[in-house]
Amino acid sequence: MNVLTWSQLSTQDQQDALRRATAAAGPEVTAGVADILAQVRTRGDEALRELTARLDGAEVEALEVPATDRQAAVAALDPQLRSAITEAAGRIRAFHEAGMQQDYAVETAPGVVCERVVRPIRRVGLYVPAGSAPLPSTALMLGIPAQLAGCPEVVLCTPPRPDGTADPAVLAAAAECGIERVFVVGGAQAVAAMAYGTGSVPRCDKIFGPGNAWVTEAKRQVSTAEGGPGIDLPAGPSEVVVVADAGADAEFVAADLLSQAEHGPDSQVLLLTDSRELAEAVGEEVEEQVASLPRADIARKALAASRIILTPDLSTAMDVVNDYAPEHLILALREPRDWLGQVERAGSVFLGDTTPETLGDYSSGTNHVLPTAGAARFTGGVNVGSFQIAMTVQQATPAGLQQVGPSAVTLSEAESLHAHQRAVTRRLARIGSDASSSTTTSDGVR
Q: pTM here?
């Protein structure tokens, strides 16, 4: 990993040091994704099968996994893995259940009640990566909030294995979430299928899930097309920033950096520290640990675009964090909670030496579908609310209209929207007329 001294870098060099590796591949990915989307939109299932054969090296006839195959895969799964899936699901469910949105109503003026009511999105599409490694944990992270939200239809797409079947652990995780429609299709073509619908894959209202640069770009393109689906957030190549002081354990820090570097060659990991001694020790640990990783080649490619940055102090490190807005942030500090208040922008934060990022990926209970590429500047990770829409409702009695109508008349007049104004004044006139009539006696005397 390259070691940089922050105070010695120009402003441009500092920006370059924080530049994501995926940025350079942008034009190529954009064009390639557009071609894939067009093929799927035009030729549906036929295009999905051709792209799956070419890009995933798997021949798939039936795109949807039959119920019998799903049940058989779950039954044959290693009991320890099945238990781990169930255990993690319980924690994820408990965490997300506690933060669910609630309906509420407020009387904003006498006779005027305003409400907010929550409804599930009708049909959602979940993307579960399985390119270089299947991710059953992602099925849990997406499926459980969708289940808690009450979404009537949930569709899951995941890349096939070489023999054309879905990963059994992914199927088990889907079953844990009550998902009954699983398709063996991956990459940008899976996003296209869920966005447009094909003969087999139904069109979805919103698409969720992480993926590589191609998946992320596909989500972006379909969501910006007229009538396209919503998307959860930019959840692309993984990234982590570790902020560590002199008392941090170099072995642990190196392990945390590598835990994200092994995701893919386009992942990015950063260490920010005010200790040169720790920086050097972590660099040595990274080299030692990566050599024994089964995915060492992938991790090394990610490390090539990663950095160890020496900052003059920890406050400067926090400024860098907030500029970068990382997906994952580990505070390997002696009093990590004391520094939490300075964190303004991050997807998920991990406090202290005994809280590895891996816990959030699998079993602590939070969610690992998080904003990447700086999107933590404006959004957080997936939650139950991501699978719902919130509608506002209002009702005014005649007396309530008399209370709030005049201000609406004044404001619509200021905006020269006279039809808006008359929608109120005509009603107020009728209410006044009715009130006048009701106070008139039979001989016409008021």
A: 0.93
